[in-house]
Amino acid sequence: MMLPRALASLRAQTHTDWICEVHNDDPTDPRPAELPAALQDPRLTLFVHPRNLGGTATFNLFFGSISEPFFSILEDDNSWEPDFLATMLAVAESHPDVTVFWANMHIAEEEGTGIMTDTGRTIWPYEEAEPVRLFQWGHFNQLAGALHSNGATLIRSNPGQNFRIPEVPFGVMEAFRERLFPFPLLLVTRPLATFTVTKRSARSRDPGEWAEAQALLVATFLKDCPWSEQQIEALWTNARALVPTKTTNLIMAAIAQPASRGILRYARWRDCWVVLCGFLRRPSVYSRLRASRRRHPTWWNTLEIHARANWKSRHPQS
Prior knowledge:
By secondary structure, the chain is of the alpha+beta class.
């Protein structure tokens, strides 16, 4: 259990004016309750859910309107540097028009129970000459993923805000939620937290569900935003450059949404061959992709509405 490490990093913060809700989503597991009780820190309050809510519903508890001016989520597989809160709050004070801030993260790997090894890598390059970066809507990473990382994010609380998302696979929660955020988002390029790649994961083991979510993310990214031919060609170039390649996501989007099929003119035979081999191994995924919009109307509507709104806010004259 990595909760002790996460809470230790919170209690070691140089900014000490905080309160923390510790949420246990497994009412059959008494261990999370033992730690706050042992620490006797009045800033910690334990909440044991009467039933297992699952990833989306648990995270949604934190993304409504709250009374505190800022909030963060510290997942148990993450930890913060001692100056995380102090640094992020200072950045927020100097950028009053930004709502969502996140910091770069070190990447560690779980080698065994309680043993975490620093890989020497970070999620983003650390740019000492560029301590903060502003991101507008439409970055390539948002094609099927997210820019921000939950475990290193600080969010300004505004009256009436609601960043709750529908029930989705755990691995795409950040991508779905980022569609709801007001842009620009701000990255602190110095690593102020650590993300640990654990041996166990809450990600869906259903390849069809994962493929559907990825396809709808890409299809809505493209559908309501008038990307130029040059931009679409650049998407393919960027997708091929990644390891593993992301061209599969573009092809899956075209299967899920007929309006996106024009992007296939930039596909190469090797791109299509990879997808075909995947369908031969799991033929049911193809039929699920074709029906994904009908199977998941709430996913589609959430993504499409906010993709269109994000584009309009950036291009009000279009």
